[in-house]
Amino acid sequence: MREGYEGTGPGAITPDGCAVELYSRLPVGAEPDIIAAAVPAGARVLELGSGVGRMTHALLERGFQVTAVDESAEMLERVRGARTICGPIEKLDLGETFDVVLLASFLVHAGDVEVRRGMLRACVRHLAEGGCVLIQREGEDYHTNVPRERVDPAGFTVRIVSAVPVGDGVDSVRAEYVFPDAVWTQTFRARPLTREQFEEALGEAGLRVDRYLTEDRVWVRAVPVAGG
Predict the structure, then answer these.
(1) For residues 73 and 75, what is the distance between their CA atoms, to the nearest angstrom?
(2) Is there a contact between 75 and 14 (Cβ–Cβ < 8 Å)?
(3) pLDDT tens per residue across span 83-111
(4) What is the arrangement of strands in the sheet containing 170-178, beginning at the earlier edge strand?
């Protein structure tokens, strides 16, 4: 396990505390439609942190070509129809480029600044000329509006139980996923980023915001500073 990360519940748990069986159950939301509306049809997509392929499969159904990357082999075993690559995102160097690089799941909020920097550099390294990076960031009240819970129409409850400061601007966040037949928990470290801090982090990597794709500014289309 990565330091500060933990997961409980049935089945395999990945190094960042994610339960493979849990993520196999979670439904995909509006994200694939948000992505599809922001990029060219049939684009080649590098999906960083694909997990079990919830978005991978939805993007494949929409006609995209997807390469799915995750550090968990157990997660990637659930991916169907896409090329898969197992390894840490921040060290990825495939020697090829893609029309779209996708960094979802709030990965840009990695507690370790060097990991975040490595992830954003990996995004830029794999971006074709004229391409874009799509990033999912946390909502701006995610660490202050706690505890909170959401009952999903699919019949389970998600609770963000706490967000406790552990130093250096990082919080230890605890989440619970309650299904009728099983409960999973995940504890992970996340660094809250204001809009200004987020845009500054992009700038460090040579990226800039092209536009925010959703009203809550959770989904972002970024392009190289010199391009666009």
Answers:
(1) 5
(2) yes
(3) 999 999 999 999 999 999 999 999 999 99
(4) 6-8, 183-190, 170-178, 157-167, 148-151
Task: Check pLDDT > 80 for residue 76.
Answer: yes
φ/ψ (deg, to 5) at 140 = -75, -5
- Burial string for 149-166 (b: 16+ CB within 10 Å, else e) reads eeeeeeebeebbeebeee
Q: Averaged over 171-185, what is the pLDDT?
A: 98
Pull the structure tokens for residue 18. Answer: 């994610």
Q: What is the pLDDT of residues 118-128, one digit of tens each?
A: 999 999 999 99
pLDDT tens digits, residue range 2-30? 899 999 999 999 999 999 999 999 999 99
Tell how strand 207-212 and strand 219-224 pair up: antiparallel
Tokens of 59: 């993007």
CA distance 187 to 203: 29
pLDDT at 226: 80
What the block records as the tokens of 20 is: 């493979």
Sheet of 219-224, strands arranged across: 83-86, 65-70, 44-48, 98-103, 127-136, 219-224, 207-212
Do strands 183-190 and 83-86 pair parallel, antiparallel, or not at all (unpaired)?
Answer: unpaired
Mean pLDDT of 66-72: 97
The rounded distance, in Å, linking the Cα atoms of 10 and 172 is 22
Name the residue type at position 204.
Answer: E
Coil, helix or strand at residue 85: strand
Which pair of structure tokens corresponds to residue 38? 């922001």
CB 191 within 8 A of CB 110: yes
